[in-house]
Write a structure and sequence with these properties.
With 426 residues, this protein is of the alpha/beta class. Helices cover 38% and strands 25% of the residues. β12 and β13 form a beta hairpin. The radius of gyration is 26 Å and the shape is elongated. The N and C termini lie far apart (55 Å). The protein binds coenzyme A. The site of coenzyme A has 21 residues, from β20, α14, β21 and α15.
Length: 426
């Protein structure tokens, strides 16, 4: 391991210390060769004072047990009808899996406990069909989970719920993970699956606001593999319930978990709660980051070079787009109050994050801000990205006459001959 990797990790520690992360592990992952390594990653998170809760599924094992017994399970994932025989299989499969997880955690010197923290009620009769032993999560015993966490014990939660009369129900593990993450105010919910992430029409979604994912699944449900629809639905529900970030990662890949938690371009899919939450006003200490970000574009003459002093003076106009606290893009809004005009400038998205809608988000953010300030028009001067502003940002081509007089003078002096683009704000 490189020491720089450790430094990279340590920068996240203050943000995550004492915070809760819920790991929702699919049953199939527990029997994968990489599982022991995954648990080492959990041990590392724990050693950094990150509170980890493990929720697991069991459908792969229920299916295997049913095959062994030459029977067909009435349901595999706790969302359909669970008959008495399938409940029996679920109990055997879940108990064995929980045991394997506890065994693996203790091999990493971690204290862990199986819990009965899911209070469930029967799903009941839906459209005339009795769902028998399938349960619906009613409540999570938050106090018990907090006690365990405070005592340094990792809670392991099987996909089973209990009611006040001691009856057991099969519950869907994604639903359990959502309820636990919501009620424990987790900062992250990480679905650990055997897929690379959420794949839509054969393309991996790297990151997306929850609201866009809701629209996508409404428009084209068939674009997702059926087995991933539950992750889609629970990821968006978690964001709507206040979990800021939901990840879907491949648990069979080495370092997948650490890569996702401790880097700003993880290996899987990141679904996040609010479109603009990644955008913040720049501070003086961001000057260097802005210079580093835009260096390449300045060299390619896409952006005008600005000195440190210039940037410091005008820093109030800049905004930064962060992913996991790392600046990955920037933009500026210069205001000409007399003309009620604004100029969008220095838009730059780092090459690792291009074509993921970050540019559009910043563009929309600046347009919204300018509108809120009562400006009537937004301008952009661009040499090489003018078609981007026209096709993606609703700008139209204008002329230097559209510029405020002082800006026009600078424009003439620069000799850059940029295209002038205009967007009306009303
Ligand atoms: C232009 C830039 C801001 C786009 O950011 P981005 O986050 O990658 O863009 P988005 O994800 O919002 O949009 C991607 C779309 O824009 C298109 N696009 C990207 N750069 C483009 C350009 N220079 N000209 C025309 N279209 C462009 C992509 O092909 C993609 O099209 P698609 O929707 O059909 O797939 C970014 O490439 C960049 O920083 N460029 C260098 C600096 C620069 O020129 N800044 C503008 C001067 S103010």
């Amino acid at each position: 391991m490189k020491l720089t990797d450790l430094r990279g990790i340590l920068q996240y520690v203050p943000e995550f210390r004492e915070k809760t992360i819920v790991l929702a592990i699919d049953g199939a992952i527990v029997t994968d060769d990489n599982f022991a390594t995954l648990l080492l990653d959990v041990a590392l998170l724990w050693s950094l004072n990150i509170r980890v809760i493990v929720v697991h599924g069991a459908s792969a094992q229920i299916k295997a047990l049913a095959n062994q017994a030459q029977m067909t399970a009435s349901d595999l994932d706790g969302s359909g009808i669970t008959d008495a025989a399938t409940l029996d299989l679920s109990l055997t499969a879940a108990t064995r899996l929980t045991h394997e997880i506890l065994q693996g955690l203790s091999a990493c010197d971690l204290r862990a406990a199986c819990t009965n923290v899911i209070i469930a009620h029967p799903m009941g009769v839906i459209q005339g069909v009795d769902h028998l032993f399938t349960g619906k999560v009613e409540r999570v015993d938050v106090a018990l989970l907090q006690t365990l966490l405070t005592q340094g014990v990792i809670p392991v939660i099987p996909p089973l719920g209990f009611d006040g009369d001691g009856k057991t129900y099969r519950v869907n593990s994604d639903g359990v993970a959502l309820a636990v993450a919501e009620q424990l105010r987790a900062i992250k919910l990480i679905f650990i699956t055997s897929q690379d992430g959420l794949i839509f029409r054969e393309r991996l979604i790297r990151q997306m606001p929850a609201s866009d994912l809701v629209k996508l699944v409404q428009q084209d449900r068939a674009g997702f593999a059926t087995e991933m629809l539950s992750k889609v639905q629970h990821a968006t529900a978690a964001c709507n319930a206040g979990v800021p970030r939901v990840h879907v990662i491949n648990g069979t890949m080495d370092e997948g978990l650490l890569g996702e938690v401790f880097s700003n371009h993880g290996i899987g899919t990141l679904i996040y709660a609010n479109e603009y939450e990644n955008i913040r006003p720049a501070k003086k200490k961001d000057v260097r980051a802005i210079q580093l970000l835009t260096k390449q574009a300045v060299e390619a003459d896409e952006l005008v070079k600005r000195s440190k002093a210039e940037l410091e003076k005008g820093i109030g106009d800049y905004f930064i787009f962060d992913i996991d606290k790392n600046p990955v893009a920037c933009v500026a809004l210069h205001v000409y109050p007399e003309q009620q005009q604004g100029e969008l400038a220095s838009l730059y998205v780092s090459s690792a994050h291009e074509n993921q809608g970050v540019g559009r988000k910043l563009l929309q953010f600046v347009a919204d801000k300018a509108r809120d300030m009562g400006l009537r028009e937004l301008l952009v001067l661009s040499t090489q990205a003018f078609t981007y502003f026209i096709s993606k940002g609703s700008f139209v081509e204008g002329t230097p006459d559209d510029l405020p007089p002082a800006r026009r003078e600078k424009y003439e002096q620069s000799g850059r001959n940029s295209k002038v683009l205009v967007r009306k704000l009303n």
